[in-house]
Amino acid sequence: MLYCRRGRSQYHILVLLNAIGVAMGAFACCAACVFTNPLEVVKTRLQLQGELRARGSYQRHYRGVLQGLWVVGRTDGLRGLQKGLSVGLIYQGLMNGVRLGSYSYCEALGITSYNGGSLLSGAGAGALGAFIASPAYLVSSEYFFLATPLHKAVPACKPLLLSECL
């Protein structure tokens, strides 16, 4: 860490370094989201196919992950594979930014130096990040399966968001 001899300057430098570290961590998670988003799209479609029908009474469009990637890529193209990317980036940025920031704050307070403090700090930071970002995850799950553009999908999910998340 970078320290100064002046009291207030030391605090401001540490806060600035912490904010830069949190922003870089959130950006790295968002960059990874670009590569894993097609897998998330196919996973959601596999989970939701035939959800409202009796077993065996629906046509299975996706039989596995690789075949699902092939079908979505062939029918919807690259846009179909990256469907919901903007919401996924918001989710990853929120969740990991809050998680990394909360853990850094616990480190600055010295909580992680106690026995078991690192485990409790990590669990608390992860739970807080997941709680804050859960509405964005719900919207992304809905959007992966919907065939409507995002500006039409989000208002349609608003009642669902309010009933599920509050």
Task: Walk me through this protein's architecture.
The chain is mainly α and 166 residues long. It has a single domain, classed as Mitochondrial carrier domain (Mitochondrial carrier fold, Alpha/alpha barrel), CATH 1.50.40. Helix content is 78%, strand content 0%. It is built from five helices and no strands. The longest helix has 42 residues. It is elongated and about 65 Å long. The N terminus and C terminus are likely disordered.
Order of helical and strand elements? HHHHH
Instruction: Decide which structural class fits the backbone.
Output: mainly alpha
- Counted by DSSP, the helix tally is 5
Largest sheet: none
How far the N terminus sits from the C terminus, by CA atoms, comes to: 40 Å
Characteristic terms for this protein:
single chain; disordered C terminus; 5 helices; elongated; 166 residues; mainly alpha; disordered N terminus; Mitochondrial carrier fold
Q: Helices, strands, pairings?
A:
Layout: H1 7-48, H2 65-81, H3 85-109, H4 117-145, H5 150-165
Helix pairs in contact: 1-2, 1-3, 3-4, 4-5
